């Protein structure tokens, strides 16, 4: 496995060019690195700049958390359920 | 007990009955029902869409139950969160907790709701006469959740 | 709503339905049910007698509702306290509160229960294998009630 | 009216010689005075010495509250409902 699966939800899902994607990821790196790579694709990805939360393998993490190849990574706005 | 994420409605009567069935140890039962209001931020809301992150939602709710059990003496805990489309007065979320102790039941139920509001991956989109709008997270919810840390 | 002191049982399902009937303004419903436990202070309790001060009980519960309404934004409030004879798992007390705000509903429901415990004239007498004994007031209940002052 | 009606509840009701009574009370006086008069009837009334609550006309009061002729006065142990 040399990629990660990325999911977006809610406003991000509607705003970004893709709702989900596979992203090349051959070795461990931080959530912050991954987010920066996505953002570097262009201004269509500017929605990632705001207050965005991240979950790795369905657990909420901070930007310095490590993403392994094969992980499921999700980006989404602050949650509003309940 | 169990946590459930579902589109169909739940019955408060059935959920309460399940909490107290064969339960003579717990003197206190606290429950919360969250319902759709017809007003928010000054606008009339005629519908609501609730999106979630399938898989993670169930995990987040199960974690909430675990954390509550580590902190308080609880008998039964049940958490149900619906997703999909809602109209005014529809039931959205149920949290039911039993305990031998009143204080534990109140604290655990409120803790679960407050923490759910900031950690469980659900998102609301309101339908108003001016169109659809994603609901923004509220500082108050963050502050309420932080009280428990 | 109303406060009631009665010997007959109440239905959680009916009481919940009354709280939310025609109510699209209140997103939060918190309820408490106090039930008879089968254990207290180490002895097995097989029955409970609940004595009250007729007239004053209704007044004390109505005062609780009034005080809660002065303090929080509440929609409907209902308080039911049973008196008479009870067996394990019997329902004793119901407090149901609705509000536009989750925090208000939780606080008011817990305030009513905590304050009821120290100001409403009800007295429990437990029936154990060693005979009947009046239940002593607990310091913990006094402390919980004082938190609200 | 030159008396007050007095009620006892729970343990007091069972322990004292009477569960309720009319007591001569021609002019205003404190709950503490009334309680002392009852206690002065003898040791059968010693249960009044403990931690006893009082309500005048069905409102909880302190020992310095004034009792008027015609009032309903209740003495009882700390409450244990709920």
From TrEMBL, chains A, D:
Please give the superkingdom of this protein's source: Bacteria
Concerning PANTHER family, the annotation shows: MOLYBDOPTERIN SYNTHASE SULFUR CARRIER SUBUNIT
NCBIfam families cross-referenced by the UniProt entry: moaD
Q: Which family does it belong to?
A: Belongs to the MoaD family.
Identify the InterPro entries for this entry. Answer: Beta-grasp_dom_sf (IPR012675), MOCS2A (IPR044672), Mopterin_synth/thiamin_S_b (IPR016155), ThiS/MoaD-like (IPR003749)
Q: What is this protein called?
A: Molybdopterin synthase sulfur carrier subunit
Question: Which keywords accompany this UniProt record?
Answer: Nucleotide-binding
The protein's matches in CDD domains, at most eight in alphabetical order, are given as: Ubl_MoaD
Q: Gene behind this chain?
A: moaD
TrEMBL record, chains B, C:
SUPFAM superfamilies attached to this UniProt entry: Molybdopterin synthase subunit MoaE
UniProt KW keywords: Molybdenum cofactor biosynthesis, Transferase
Which NCBIfam families does this chain map to? PRK10678.1
Enzyme nomenclature, EC number: 2.8.1.12
Family that this chain belongs to: Belongs to the MoaE family.
Any idea what this protein is called?
Molybdopterin synthase catalytic subunit
User: What is the reaction catalyzed?
Assistant: 2 [molybdopterin-synthase sulfur-carrier protein]-C-terminal-Gly-aminoethanethioate + cyclic pyranopterin phosphate + H2O = molybdopterin + 2 [molybdopterin-synthase sulfur-carrier protein]-C-terminal Gly-Gly + 2 H(+)
A molecular function (GO) held by this record is: molybdopterin synthase activity
One Pfam short name: MoaE
Pathway participation: Cofactor biosynthesis; molybdopterin biosynthesis
| Description of how the protein assembles with itself and partners | Heterotetramer of 2 MoaD subunits and 2 MoaE subunits. Also stable as homodimer. The enzyme changes between these two forms during catalysis.
């Amino acid at each position: 496995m040399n990629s990660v699966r990325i999911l977006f939800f809610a406003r991000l899902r509607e705003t970004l060019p893709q709702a989900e994607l596979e992203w090349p990821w051959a070795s461990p790196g931080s959530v912050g690195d991954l987010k920066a790579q996505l953002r570097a694709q262009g201004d269509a990805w500017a929605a990632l700049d705001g207050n965005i939360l991240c979950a790795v393998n369905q657990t909420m993490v901070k930007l310095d958390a490590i993403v392994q190849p094969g992980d499921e990574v999700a980006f989404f706005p602050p949650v509003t359920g309940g | 007990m169990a946590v459930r994420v579902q589109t169909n409605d739940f019955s408060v009567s059935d959920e309460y009955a399940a909490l107290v069935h064969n339960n003579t140890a717990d003197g206190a039962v606290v429950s919360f029902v969250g319902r759709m209001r017809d007003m928010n931020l000054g606008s009339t809301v005629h519908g609501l869409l609730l999106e979630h992150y399938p898989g993670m939602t169930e995990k987040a709710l199960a974690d909430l139950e675990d954390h509550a059990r580590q902190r308080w003496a609880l008998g039964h805990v049940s958490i149900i969160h619906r997703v999909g489309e809602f109209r005014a007065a529809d039931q959205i979320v149920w949290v039911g907790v039993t305990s031998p102790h009143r204080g534990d039941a109140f604290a655990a139920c409120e803790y679960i709701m407050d923490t759910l509001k900031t950690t469980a991956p659900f998102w609301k989109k309101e339908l108003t006469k001016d169109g659809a709008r994603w609901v923004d997270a509220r500082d108050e919810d963050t502050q309420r959740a932080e009280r428990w840390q």
